[in-house]
Amino acid sequence: MDIALSEEQKLLQDTAARLGDSVAVNGPEGIPSDAALDRQWQQLVELGVPALRSPQLCGLDASGVETALVIEQLGRGLSAVPIVGQAVLAAELLQAAGCVEDLERLADGSFRVAPVLSASLNGFASANEPGVAFDAAGATHALAVTCSDGQRRLISGPVGGIDGDCAALDLTRQFRRLSTDFASTAAIVGEPIDDLRWQRVESLAMTAVAADLLGVMQGALDDAVRYAGERTQFSVKIGTFQAIQHLLADALVRVEGARSCLWHAAWAIDHLPVHEAKLAAMTAKAYASEAGREVVETSVQVFGGMAITWEHVSHLRLRRMLVDRRLFGDEAVHYEAIAAMRLADQKLA
Asked: What InterPro entries does the annotation carry (predicted)?
């Protein structure tokens, strides 16, 4: 099968790559905040990312592929802009619940809302359980899930209903602890979300995090290859050493394998039956979680001891990869779920 991006998708990819380069984080001291981060958010809004999953706003069919392409390019530079949480997951939740007015405000940048995840980060949190607002930098509201009369509904509350920042392993993204009285101060928004639609929301969530993982991997590999071509040892560039070449070649295979899984999962969200789309999303998330650890650790090895210092960008990549790996389940969680799904369905087996 020949899989390739359309000309429009390539243009979006190039545009997102330029944006990713302009907002890239090059070390702990370069992580933007407050006004600088707000300006970067507006750039994301101008690109139309919050509207990519809303046909009524972007004028096109919802596309998981375009969404994944943009996330990957910003993840490559470790961008601190809350694209996964606020621009993608929150937008998908609002779209699923038919919150048209909130979507319009999100698309024009006047509404900032962060999705609430469980304390384990394995999925979306219910309003009555401990949770954290994910990718919450600059958010004015938080968006959680509640079950009322057997129906799944969204509740939205102001940022004042969140206790404060959590100490997070990932220094490029903000996590905020949900207060115990958040449910009492929040209001139900939109329409009920049925089970089939909810499964597509979860599939997009896994695919979005897999896309960020792919971006982190690609950035790590690019930097390692560049360094190997510049660093000399005994007057010889280390990139000529066979051991280094083998490490980087293996990393490239893992990156391309993750990209193949991701593109299929991103396409499947909008074109395959729910259970097949979910299987593709779990496969992409599992593969990217496992490959991400190997690729980023390979990059650290190529850079040597300086890569594990606080000042080096590899330190940030390692942290972001470890959090991405946990978000919505790591490879152990998903491989077990994939096996159970295939054994239960003879068509998938």
From this structure: AcylCo_DH-like_C (IPR036250), AcylCo_DH/oxidase_C (IPR009075), AcylCoA_DH/ox_N_sf (IPR037069), AcylCoA_DH/oxidase_NM_dom_sf (IPR009100)
Q: What is the mean pLDDT of the chain?
A: 91
Query: What residues contact residue 60 under an 8 Å CB cut-off, 6+ apart?
Result: none
- How far CA 125 is from CA of 37, 63, 252, 308, 321, in Å, comes to 26, 25, 35, 33, 22
pTM for the model stands at 0.94
pLDDT in tens, 310-325: 889 999 999 999 999 9
pLDDT of residue 161: 47
Domains of the chain in start order, with CATH, are 7-193 (1.10.540.10), 196-344 (1.20.140.10)
Q: Report how far residue 15's alpha carbon sits from residue 41's, in angstroms, rounded to the nearest whole number.
A: 15
pLDDT digits 0-9 by tens, 224-279: 999 999 998 888 998 999 999 999 999 999 999 999 999 999 999 999 999 999 99
* Band (89; pLDDT cuts 50, 70, 90): very high
